[in-house]
Amino acid sequence: MMFVDVLLTVLTVAFALLTVFSKKTVISAFALLMTLVCIGGIYYQLGSVFLSAIQVLVNAGAVAILFVFVMMLIDLEKYPNNTERSKIKLIITVLTSLVSLGVLALIINNNIDTITVVNLSDSSMKALFDRLFTQYYIPFELATVLLLAAVVAVVVIANNNKQHPGKE
Amino acid sequence: MHLTYLANIGHYIPEMLLVVLMVGLIILEATYKESEKNRPYFYITTYIGLAATFIALLVNLKALPLTIFTNSMTIDPFSTLMKMIMVLGTFGAVYLSKINRDIYDSLKSEYVIISVGVLIGGMILASANNMLMLYIGIETLSILSYVLASLSKNNDRSSEAGLKYVLYGGISAGIMLFGMSHIFGIVGTIQFSEMITVLPTLEAWKIAVIMPSFLLFFVGIGYKIACVPFHMWSPDVYEGSPLPVTAFFSIVPKIAGIAVLVRVTMMFFGHTGPMQIGWIGLLSIISALTMTVGNVSAINQKSVKRMLAYSSISHAGVMMAGLVVLSEIGVRSIVFYGITYLFMTVAAFYILGIVQDKYNNDHFERFTGLIYRYPMMAIMMTIVMFSLTGIPPFSGFVAKFNILYALISKKHFALAIILGFNSIVSAYYYLKIVRLMILKKQESDETISHFGFLNQMIITAMTVPVIFLGIFWERVMMLAQGANIFIK
Q1: Chain B residues lying within 8 Å of A104, measured CB to CB
Q2: Size of interface A-B (CB pairs under 8 A)
Q3: Longest CA pairwise span in chain A (Å)
């Protein structure tokens, strides 16, 4: 099992790097998709089958595909790749990455035992939904309200059949 | 567990009423034929629903502060007062959308439905007591606002405003989530009530991590308030959006953002230490910048709507200044400022909206000689502009004076001086309208059809509080006195 874990971790990082450094947008999108799938694999290895399925379905299946759709809609040939790399940009990037890395390392190193998480076992789905329908019921319901209003909003934006006389 | 969860649902009636209202409006809208432009029952239902919500909030105002739904929501006088301001603002914006031509006839009912949705988001935000509720509130508020901004679909500027709003909003929400996850990583909980106990006991290295995290967290809130480093979207969105939407934007999301900023500041930064010093320093600098940039940019505007957009940025800066003192006087003066800001803004936008409808643009010159045609309206506009500047005896003066008093009592002299200077600068552009209306001869004597008896009465009724709050302000301050209880 250890081997699979290490392989997934290495693949995730490799694909993430490819996402950032690839010069072709399509390859970036594909690498992003693979990163998300690999993270789904890590969830599976940790024992949370449900979370891994959701990760693949929603993040890899829907979100990454949306990226590809947008790329198809935009004529990428028209916009040449912005490959100029200034020194300041590079320094800022490296600094930000190092700081983020340091902060994450600090948090993980010191807090790994104190954070209580839902026990990731076979019953993880049951535990998740127990929480969802008791402690976090109100956020769940409010999200449905948001979605309902968003449906109206989407119809408003997308419906193009009506004549809009507006102001004369 | 399950029963205690619902035990306090009686305190959540206002929000539930609004949800029912929104769903009811969606159904009601579907019963009308597309050809029916005048939809009396639709508006009557909206007014009744909003009025019922307001009354339910009034009942809640007497309740002691308490948290409901396993600590995820706080019901206290402060949040209730902020919610009342938002409900009144929505009420004003809905009637304005009915009489204004800036919104297409076929989309007027959708405007009402979506703005009720935004109001729900604002109310969640005002009483959020954990990170999850806060995020859901901000998203409800934002996602629906994007659509409101691009409601004039055939107008390029409106579509541009919507797109800009989406892009800025998406990025700032992402940054805020990043900050929140770091805060969670350090503190180990998303409940505000548990965070308060953990925060004062943090070790030095944890404080070093959590301070930048709070900075990232602030980006999301600052974006909603449109304070200075994150204000770039605001004038373009305000100008591009249809006028009733602009009126709505300058009240509901802004008040909701201020409410959540007050709650976060008072809860997490009450104890002395490096965190408090850092946060107060951040707030002072941003508040000073917000006031100054808003006012200075407003000077050169030709469009009154854009001028009001910049002025609303600077008013947000003044409200933030009240927060720097970290005391109940500050919170009370912010609540009072919010109330007066509501009436001044709504009245100004009503008059502007009606004038703009007549001439199809909103340049300053359109107000020339208004007093010779509609003396009552010109006087009301003058009162509102005086009050926005902060000239006694109007309520704007008392509101600014309260914040100044709070600042000076805690020895924040620099911020107090900046506030004073900004009032002087703002006089230039506010009084420009007054000069045009009163001292210049009119160019023509066209009548403006929407300045009928009813609308003049409504505008006058909205201006009356601007005068009376300036004189009988003690009463309102007494009302706001309970607003500090939530801190513990």
Answers
A1: 185
A2: 109
A3: 71
Percent of chain A with pLDDT over 70: 79
Do B290 and B317 touch, CB atoms closer than 8 A?
Answer: yes
Strands (DSSP E) contained in chain A are none
Name the 3-class secondary structure at B74: strand
CA nearest B201: which of B191, B188, B190?
B188
List of chain B residues whose C-beta atoms are within 8 Å of the C-beta of residue A100: none
Token pair recorded at residue B131: 């990170």
CB A67 within 8 A of CB A30: no
- Whole-model pTM: value is 0.88
The more confident residue out of A124 and B438 is B438
Contact A166 B140 (CB under 8 A): no
Residues within 8 A of B (CB atoms), A 5-64 only: none
Closest Cα to residue B69, out of B7, B132, B125, B20? B7
CA B243 from centroid of its chain's CA atoms: 16
Residues in chain B with CB shorter than 8 Å from the CB of A149 are: 22, 113-114, 117, 120, 140, 144
Question: Could you tell me if residue A4 is inside a domain?
Answer: yes
Determine, for residues A150 and B107 on separate chains, whether the beta-carbon distance falls below 8 Å: no
Q: Is B306 part of a structural domain of the chain?
A: yes
Interface test with A, best of B209, B215, B359 (most A CBs within 10 A): B209
| Cβ <8 Å between B23 and A148 | yes
Q: Check which CATH number belongs to the domain holding A40 and give it.
A: 1.20.120.1200
Full domain range(s) for residue A137: 123-160
Q: Is the peptide bond before B274 cis (omega within 30 degrees of 0)?
A: no
Contact check, Cβ <8 Å, B147/A156: yes
Q: How far off is chain B from A162, nearest CA to CA, in Å? A: 8
ipTM for the whole predicted complex goes beyond 0.85? no
**From CA B468, how far away is CA B394, in angstroms rounded?**
8
DSSP string computed for B405-474:
HHHHHTT-HHHHHHHHHHHHHHHHHHHHHHHHHHTSPPS-----TT--HHHHHHHHHHHHHHHHHHHSHH
Q: Do B102 and A167 touch (CB under 8 A)?
A: yes
Please state, in angstroms and as integers, the Cα–Cα distance from residue B145 to each residue in B89, B121, B248, following that order: 15, 10, 10
Each residue of A38-68: pLDDT tens digit? Answer: 999 988 887 778 888 888 898 888 888 888 8
* Cross-chain residue pair A153–B147, CB shorter than 8 Å: yes
A10 and A65 fall within a common domain: yes
Indicate the residue among A76, A94, A110 that finishes a domain: A76
- In A104-143, the residues whose Cβ lies within 8 Å of chain B are 104, 106-108, 110-111, 114-116, 134-139, 142-143
State residue A112's pLDDT score: 64
Tokens encoding A130: 């127990």
Decide the pairing of beta strands B66-68 and B73-75.
antiparallel
CA distance B303 to B363: 4
- Residue range B275-280: average pLDDT? 87
Distance from CA of A66 to the nearest CA of B (A): 16
Domain count along chain A? 2
Q: What is the pLDDT of residue A123?
A: 60
Q: Compute the nearest-CA separation of A149 from chain B (Å).
A: 6
CA–CA min distance B139, chain A (Å): 8
A119-133, B104-118, B284-298: lowest mean pLDDT where? A119-133
